[in-house]
Design goal:
It is built from 14 helices and 16 strands. It is α/β, with parallel strands linked by helices. The protein has one domain: Glycosidases (TIM Barrel, Alpha-Beta Barrel). A hairpin with a 3-residue loop joins strand 9 and strand 10. The longest helix has 28 residues. Bound molecules: 6-O-phosphono-beta-D-glucopyranose.
């Protein structure tokens, strides 16, 4: 057996979900609508988020399954619209009570709650007042953060501010959170981004002020960017894309200042955000205790040619990378892809972890990684998802190798704990360890079924890692 380095004691073996994708109960007990509830233009044939996996009503059964899986941690998000239905108005005691019940249930089973404060589901009422384009949303988020810390601060030790802020900015239309591609729209987008960075800094500062034992961090989607070749022009394009996609977000979160390459990219195009007086000190006041990151696969880019061919159509908007005159996305010939066209790069996971840890020297918490597939529920009630086991085993192996390279990894929470509705590809694209029996439009009984990966992951957790032949 090949030796794999040990993980840190108390390693947080977990799994992830997000509120709007798993809960359902979209208007239950005073919940207000979020931008996800108001979303139009979902791809034809895919469901909306009104029922999802009905976790809102079945959380006890779900937590019992997570406990049986052996999870040490569960990463989920709180729906802002349950706590403050219109985003900045009165609090909703019933919504607040739901998360008390969920957190208590987790703690009773010895599962550490890891809470995302905001996962793509801005209150629709705030959106109608300008959303993140308005500075008032920064205040609304800071107030919401204070409510969460007041309510759950004695029970929750790990907090994540904003899920995949970078994907909301770069691929907002695929997630139902942003639109158009004009210069004006881009300028507004980076102003929104600036406001989210301010909101995040305020939440981190408030957390440290009020909850000295808690830990908080950002949760972007971070992946290493490969140059298509050793040509210096390709290397430069990869460096530019990495600054625009990764470091723009993490440099501000960690150091309180913009990355110089990303800032130059913004200013050259005239799309840099406007700083109000005091913004710089707000950004500098928020410091994370760790970096949470979602990893799916690396990207590969080449020097731009300057034309529309710089934007490479990878079949799905989220995998399509490229910007005319900046970098050109290309497929990586060394990687295989999933049924949904996502490249698979477990070694890239190790490379990414080393790169991020080397840059920032903060512990890393993996908050997403996983394989979306069309799983099949057999007549005998089994689900044979060996492809998911292969995917996760290779990623965990490389995570352990990264730990052996000196990277401090706090935990691993693959996506997703149970099946839920994909951000833009419906309920048929499944990621969970637990199958939820529903189709896009036929809800059936929403029964929970343990997949093969459930039993396999339980074994991985019990052994504190994967076995290598
Ligand atoms: C991440 C998100 O982008 O990837 C999740 O944080 C999302 O919300 C996950 O569901 C998988 O993406 P998709 O599009 O396959 O659901």
């Amino acid at each position: 057996m090949t030796h794999l380095p040990p993980l840190r004691p108390g390693f947080l073996w977990g799994a992830s979900t997000s509120a709007y994708q798993v809960e359902g109960g979209w208007d239950a007990d005073g919940k207000g609508p979020s931008v996800q509830d108001a979303r139009t233009g979902l791809p034809e044939g895919t469901t909306d988020f009104r029922v999802a996996s009905d976790h809102y009503h079945r959380y006890r059964e779900d937590v019992a399954l997570l406990a049986e899986l052996g999870l040490k941690a569960y990463r989920f998000s709180i729906a802002w619209t349950r706590v403050v239905p219109d985003g900045d108005g009165p609090e909703n005691p019933d919504g607040i009570a739901f998360y008390h019940r969920l957190i208590d249930e987790l703690l009773a089973h010895g599962i550490e709650p890891i809470v995302t404060m905001y996962h793509f589901d801005l209150p629709q009422a705030l959106q109608e007042k300008g959303g993140w384009s308005s500075r008032a949303t920064v205040d609304a988020f800071a107030r919401y953060a204070g409510i969460l810390f007041r309510e759950y601060g004695s029970k929750v030790r790990y907090w994540l501010t904003i899920n995949e802020q970078n994907m909301m900015i770069l691929h907002g239309s695929a997630m139902g959170v942003a639109g158009e591609d004009t210069i004006e729209a881009k300028r507004d987008l980076y102003q929104q981004n600036h406001h989210m960075l301010l909101a995040q800094a305020r939440a981190m500062a408030l957390c440290h002020e009020t909850l000295p034992h808690a830990k908080i961090g950002p949760a972007p989607n971070i992946v290493s960017i490969y140059p298509a070749s050793s040509a210096p022009e390709d290397v430069l394009a990869a460096d530019d894309f990495s600054a625009i996609r990764n470091w723009l977000y993490l440099d501000v979160a960690v150091h309180g200042r913009y990355n110089p390459t990303a800032w130059a990219y913004l200013t050259k195009r005239g799309i840099q955000p406007v700083f109000a007086e005091g913004d710089q000190s707000v950004l500098a006041s928020g410091r994370p205790d760790f970096i949470a990151l979602n990893y799916y696969a690396t990207h590969t880019v080449a020097a731009p040619s300057g034309g529309s061919e710089d934007v490479n159509d990878m079949g799905d908007e989220l995998f399509t990378v490229g910007e005319a005159g900046v970098y050109r996305g290309v497929p990586n010939p060394h990687l295989k892809a999933t049924d949904f066209g996502a490249e698979i790069d477990p070694a890239g996971f190790r490379i990414t972890l080393r790169e991020v840890y080397g840059r920032y020297r903060l512990p890393l918490l993996i908050t997403e990684n996983g394989l979306g597939a069309y799983d099949v529920l057999e007549a005998d009630g089994t689900v044979h998802d060996g492809y998911r086991i292969d995917y996760l085993a290779e990623h965990i192996r490389h995570l352990q190798l990264a730990a052996g390279d000196g990277v401090d990894v706090l935990g691993y929470c693959p996506w997703s704990a149970i099946d839920l509705v994909s951000t833009h590809q419906g309920a048929s694209k499944r990621y969970g360890f637990v199958y939820v029996d529903r189709d896009e439009f036929d809800l059936k009984e929403l029964a929970r079924v343990r997949k093969d990966s459930f039993f396999w992951y339980r074994d991985v957790i019990a052994r504190n890692g994967v076995r290598v032949p």
